[in-house]
Amino acid sequence: MAFGDVKTANGLKELDKFLADHSYVEGFTPSKADLSVFDALGKAPASTYVHALRWYNHIASFNAKERSEWGGQALPQVAGGKPTAAAPAGGDDDDDVDLFGSEDEEESAEAAKLKEERLAAYNAKKSKKPALIAKSSIILDVKPWDDETDMKEMEKNVRSIEMDGLLWGAAKLVPVGYGIHKLQICCVIEDDKVSVDLLTEKIQEFEDYVQSVDIAAFNKI
């Protein structure tokens, strides 16, 4: 796929359109191709690019060590650092491991030993790969009591909630009528560490500001 310069509106639009149907730039797990686009963006896209923002927050939730262990190949770069096309399929360096050698290889004691060594090296390499952490991207609608509620203070209180496996993202105010706005805020959670029910309960504890909390969107990533 080609996104052009992802720092431009057209490039971001193409990226957002692509990520509407894909969790990652390539394949079904994060890879160096995702890092190429992530680094080219440089910062989180605007909240209007919902799918690109969801993907960006997800990639940002991994630390440097985790990213360095991702497989695949980085996208070729052009002037200005604009990712233009995905690496050829099959770029995972696991494919470089030829477990059984050439079909024409003579079956001998030496050939059998070579096969065993390659198989052992392959299994050792696979065993070192970290397990993929299940995560979800959530958009919450936090509703105030009335039009006199201090929305900045409401957002400040919501973001004050800290949980292992919780990462807050972009937020915006959305009009609901009669001069009242609701706070729409994104977050990424690690499914095994953060309960959505517990998170909404913690937000509702700010009862001076919060009337109710709804889940506007929930996506596994």
UniProtKB/TrEMBL annotation:
Gene3D superfamilies membership: 1.20.1050.130, 3.30.70.60
GO cellular component terms given for this protein: cytosol; eukaryotic translation elongation factor 1 complex
Stated name of the protein: Elongation factor 1-beta
CDD domains: EF1B (cd00292)
UniProt biased composition (Acidic residues): 91-106
Gene source species: Anopheles epiroticus
Any GO MF annotation of the entry: translation elongation factor activity
Family annotation (SUPFAM superfamilies): eEF-1beta-like (SSF54984), GST C-terminal domain-like (SSF47616)
InterPro entries: eEF-1beta-like_sf (IPR036219), EF-1_beta_acid_region_euk (IPR018940), EF1B_bsu/dsu (IPR049720), EF1B_bsu/dsu_GNE (IPR014038), Glutathione-S-Trfase_C_sf (IPR036282), Transl_elong_EF1B/ribsomal_bS6 (IPR014717), Transl_elong_EF1B_B/D_CS (IPR001326)
Compositional bias annotation for Low complexity: 79-90
All copies of domain Elongation factor 1 beta central acidic region eukaryote, residue ranges: 99-126
Chain intervals for the UniProt region annotation (Disordered): 74-106
Name of a matching Pfam family: EF1_GNE
Lineage: Eukaryota, Metazoa, Ecdysozoa, Arthropoda, Hexapoda
